[in-house]
User: Fold these one by one.
Assistant:
Number 1:
Amino acid sequence: MAGTIKEFQGTGEERREVARFLADFVRRGELSNPRHGDDEEAHWEQRFRWWWDENPMCRPESPLGFLLYAGEQIVGFNGFIPLDYAIDDETVPTLLATTFFVEEKHRDSVLGMLARLRRLGNEYQIIDGSPSEPMREILGKMGFEKEDERYQYFFPLKTLGGQVTQPILHQFGLSLPLGHSLAPGSYLAVTPEEVESFPKIRDGKLRRSLSVESLQWLISVGSEPRSFFGLCDAQGQLQSYAIGVYKERFGLKACMLLDSCDFTPEQNGLENLLSFLTKDPESAGVLSGTDLITWSVLDSGERPKPAGLRRGSILHYSLPRHRSACRRASVPFESDIPLL
């Protein structure tokens, strides 16, 4: 059954209607793997505040999503979270796709919604970092690129044996030797405000723009607790950073580094940062009771294939037509998952 597609304006009444639709969608069992709070309108309204009101990269002209109507009733929604990326010093506006919910009997309208998204792709980079299996197939047919495989590494802390256990994991390819090449005066920032400056990288690659404000936003959103870790040189310039999100499973508490970047020419900044975190976790700002740290990398093909636990990648992206030949400095979790 075809419906009417409209641009989501983000007004207060629209938000309430969408929050009600999304919560009802989950309560009816139409979402296969719901997260905590997905069945509550208040949680969706909080997420909207995170994505649009508190987001320093959301501007008045930023597209926020599409609504699908059957008559006067909302039967589908596809949201966007505005982000800023850059090639050298030039900004490339980006939309992170989120929350593509369409009632089953109206799914013949999905292609119409995706066609509108594709038109936005003439101006914006579009990222979909957590599509469902059927959506991955559709994105491939639409010409979206799929990122390389993801590999995960584990760094046990004191409760799991710490530096005694890590070499054993390393033998099985599940951990990595950590760096010890810190320059004199290097320090660990545990809040973005402690970072004095950001390096200027001009390598022709597309990567997310960073500022104190954007990092503050990234550590203030999301349902799980999180920590900021920033390795700075003696002048306060950021060398690498990671944002850890804490999750508990099988009785273990893990700090999962869901956002990270290495700015060092040698690309050893994240290994040095992890060395900081594993040697004295609590002084480094890791929450008490954390058993291990996990870190993922993409197999970019630019260096030997990494060992590690192969997780696969579900990151898809589409570049604006005039940027189609550019290279990306991709990271594993460019998705809405840390923002839910």
Note: The helical segments are 12-27, 41-53, 110-120, 133-141, 166-171, 212-220, 269-279.
Number 2:
Amino acid sequence: MERRNLIELIESIQRRQCEEQTVEVKAATQGAPKVYDTLSSFSNQSDGGVIVFGLDENSSFAAVGVYDPQALQKAVAEQAKEIEPSLSPVFEVVEYQSVVIVGCYVAGLPMGQRPAYRRTAGITKGSYVRVGDQDLHMGAPELYEIEAFKNGARDDLDVSPASSIDMLSDDFVAKFVLDAKAERPHLSHRSADEVLSLSGAVRNGAPTLAGMLALSDYPQQAYPNLCVTAVAVAGNELGQDERGNRFLDNKRFEGTIGQMVEDALAFVRRNTRTRTVVVDGKREDVPEYPENAVREVIANSLMHRDYGPYSNGTPTRLMLFSNRLEVWNPGGIYGGQSVEDLGYVNVQTRNPTLVSILEIQGVAENRHSGIPVIRDEMRRAGLRPPVFRDVRGTFTAQLFNEPEEMGHEGVAVTAGGVSLEEILAFCSVPRSRREVAEHFGIGVSYMGSRYLNPLVANGKLAMTIPEKPKSKNQRFVATRGTR
């Protein structure tokens, strides 16, 4: 942390009058506050966080200073040693408005080292997760997701006691075996039973979860709630219309993943508008949302969701509002990666067997191309970029039917009027994510995923440490020719 960055952060807090996902404020005028919960929650998220001591939230985040900066750093460092694994926060001391402010940077831990928890409280009671400006106890599903990752658990290979080999469709199996032999040379001379076993569709003579979801006549006989629930509502929020109706349309889709994707896509077509345009003298129907983007969002939610014991009773949810489409599923981004990494950094796959089977069937690709396709399709349609949210072990993808605001010469701008040209100008010298975000008054995560990462991908920005994209010392600088 640099002195300039800490002062800019203080000014941003005072300007915005709030804490956030990566910022906690403590007055610390009378002594060192207990920050075990925040040390844990910041460590348990990829972006880490900063605790700012010396601002008073109850007095509009006024700068009140700390009681003793030296003693405060020592006390907080001692608290950090009580966290398992032991933490080593980085401190910065600055003078601001005639008082001393202390910043404490807490780095996020890799998934394999989580959860960070207070030893005396134990894992279940001492592990916290950050939600907005709150530190909340980790729930059993969140702890399971971490342990499953560390232990290499493969929920898509689990076999339900309710499953049996005769639940697989003869037609689906026959086609799958032919496709697998054509796609995978090492399977070309294998028997059908061997193909099913080697592909992970069958284990010890019984269908796995992946096999049931891809090849069963009716997977829901073993997994009743592994389905898609879809609703269309009038307005931008759930509620009732003037006639007391909650939903304009309300459906439940079952069957294989391939069938559910197609049924959900048909639901979107049925409940959204289509406009007609003339291109080169020919009339073309343009859907409200690009169909390829919708397909990718739905398929991704079913491929990459959590199928573990705390989640396999929960359906995937599709919601159509007046201004957006949302798809929600249990299971955050696998491996603890940040939302900012989606589409730019290859992340591990939660359900590799299921994804491999769906790839053979032609239902999905396994090339980490889904997120880029969604972004590209929305951009080509002139619509707002998609928004992805990872909150407490759940994932939501949002597509908006509102057009991307355009500034002069077609340069995209934010709702606050910040153009890409302004960002490039500000980055004529190397800047950190936080510096750019705070300069324009935009959240750090949104600034990274919406602007910085795309500009890097387009070659307009360069990272100073490209081999370590998430380094806390990472800076972004405009490339030659864009300055």
Note: The mean pLDDT is 89.
Number 3:
Amino acid sequence: MIFEKVSQMIASKFNVAADTLTPETLLKEDLNIDSLESVELIMELEETFSLSVKDQDMATLKTVGDIVNYITSHANKRA
């Protein structure tokens, strides 16, 4: 499932326990992910899920759930 895969990626990259992540987990506030780390995460997600995240969409991805929803709705639509 996408949530589990995204959680594992975030957990591995940012040294957090995957089982502590929820769809409501805030990337910046809860995980202290800065803008550079956010871009790096997005690049990994693009590669893993074969999608392209538009620059204007990156700013809307504030929670783990936002990322999962974005992937779910865009995974088969390459920008």
Note: Residues 2-74 form a domain with the Non-ribosomal Peptide Synthetase Peptidyl Carrier Protein; Chain A fold (CATH 1.10.1200.10).
